[in-house]
Prior knowledge:
The structure holds two protein chains of two kinds. Chain A is α+β, with helices and mostly antiparallel strands. Chain A contains two helices and six strands, in the order αβαβββββ. Chain B is of the alpha/beta class. A seven-stranded parallel beta sheet of chain B has the order 4-3-5-2-6-7-8, sandwiched between helices. The radius of gyration of chain B is 19 Å and the shape is globular. The interface of A and B includes residues 21, 101 and 106 of A.
Amino acid sequence: MGGVFEVIEQTLSLHEVKRVLQVKLKVGELTNAEPDALDMAFEAYSKDTICEGAELIIERVPVRAQCRSCQHVFAVKTMFFLCPNCQNTGIEVIQGEELLLESLEVE
Amino acid sequence: MDHTRREIEVMANLLSANDMQAEVNRTHFRKNNCLAINVIGSPGAGKTTLLEKTLPHLTLDLQVGVIEGDIFTSKDADRIAVHEIPVIQINTGGGCHLDSKMVNKVLPEFDWQATDLMIIENVGNLVCPADFDLGEAFKIIVLSIVEGDDKPAKYPVIFRNAKAVVLNKMDLEQLTDVNMATMKQDILSINPEIKIFEVSCRSGNGLIAWTSWLKQEVKVYQENIG
């Protein structure tokens, strides 16, 4: 959560902001960031800051991968990394590892 | 005042500060011809014991340094220091993982002219260390089989991100209900390219295969750089 506030501070230093109303995160399912834990940490970290009371919106990003052999793009379910098209195991994760601050709503 | 309400697009990586520092560390290791590995596992999996058993073999051919991550104590570093190997303890003071900044801080403590392999033992935890790059060449998992055959599927992120897994405490296989086939199958379905070593630090079984592989990795790394 320290990372979230570092990025928020950097962003706010470039804008004139009275209050942060909403914080949007994108959290890949192939990360260990847990939404409930993020919620709790956000509340604790934002106390007495410009973010206090802001709404935290977490968009979970499902895992998608591309087969290195047949280039097929598919959703990875239950963490089985196998191309459903050609059964190849050499695959590249193309989505689901992100941990991003997407946007801030401010006034 | 609704007209002042506005949205600022950011799209910034929340781990960018850690990732940038990790790249600095990675460059440092590369410049010094040193393979750095990040050893991750639950408390009690046998990370420190694996190092203790492996170091005498490694030091026959290699100069090794160790960074020990621990929440409060220096118990692990004390165990490594007995082997007369340069070791530095990092105490996270409550933190559940090492980060790249903590590692960077202790780098000046080592003699980089004389280090082929830097082993960084992370804080005992299968969750958070997976997300924090320290600048290592690759991650190693130590998983004791008594933790249960369901663990790879429950902690897929770390298994996806590691180059090898050492399955420790194989001497206890007959005393538990662990299904080794399930455990290995799950590991390989999460990461088909991962190397699996079955080891008993207690009996010594499997240690030679693991140590030889690690030595080979150091050799390949140094040749590629040189």
